[in-house]
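Hi, here's the filled form for the chain we discussed.

Project: internal
Contact: R.S.
Residues: 359
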Amino acid sequence: MMKRIRHYCSPSLIKLTAVLIILMLLGMTLTGCESRTNDPVEEVKIGVLTYDEYDTFINAMTKHMTKWCRQKEKEEDIRITIDIVGAKKSQLTQNDQARKFIAENYDVLCVNLVDRTDASGIIDKAIANDVPVIFFNREPVEEDLSRWDKLYYVGAIARQSGELQAKIITDALSDPERFAEIDVNNNGTIQYVMLEGEAGHQDSLVRTNVCTAALVDAGFSLEKLGDEYANWDRDQARAKMIELIDRYPFQIEMVIANNDDMALGALDVLQEQDYPLDPFVVGINGTEDALEAIRTMKLDGSVYNDAKGQGETIMEMAYDLGTGKDFPDTIEVIFDKYVFTPYSIITYDNVQQYITEES
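And the returned structure, exactly as it came back:
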């Protein structure tokens, strides 16, 4: 007769087995969650909003942004969607563009504000949808930028551009021979006209005031013949320069412009009208056309605003925000908000290095 063999488990063994099973299941669950959390990002969507699609310097920046993204795609084997739209100088249009990008699940917005004092519409929408924003070139007011820890600004310090523009001028005027060439009427005072960007724009105000104050502090005598807003635009600068020449047909010895496009607009008119004087003309930004004008000794100098460096920095930050990475050590973020690139002087003596850098 076959005996039935029974196996008995002690209560403690049963409890231990149950605990082990629970731990195994928990480990599988945690492993599954971790794999989902660490899934590689397959695409980063970046929306770039500019105040005006016809601005020469902004176009140079966006060109470098696109180039950086295409290179990063190859390096990281990741898809980067970058959409660039212009607002035709309308803040309402730009607000609508931002809302559209957010509705389409873009990861990051990069915004060149139309009105630097009216960022709240974009910021409100970004905060509500947890979409980081990198403002660039047109700095929002501090109160707006401090509203959220995912708002940043990339640009350059306007005061430095005014100081360096003044240095180009003072270096020329400090040379007695050059001073005599500029001071055509030989009265010891430089008669000049100023072409400003936009009324109320921080760069216009700072560049204008800092440059002229530095010239006076350097001990030079100046007489301002005219001061006109040309809104950063070459054609508007041409129109303003025609008016200034009509008013001062033999007096303009210097043209100080807040950017290169306006400086080049002034040069266009001076050459077309065969102005009897050869005014000293300076701009700011170091655009491709300005570099060529300096190389051919038509433009006397400019202050280099690093479109390439800023564009690449903005895209690096946008990419890192979109993929959940920390910014690299090469990007210095001041007060957890601001990233600034330095200006530098361009004259005939060193223009070739900037032409090479931009090519």
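Let me know if anything looks off before we file it.
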